[in-house]
Amino acid sequence: MAAGEKFAKRVFFWAGVYGVILLVPQFFLEAQIGRDYPPAITHPEHFYGFIGVALA
Question: Which domain holds residue 37?
Answer without folding.
Answer: 3-55
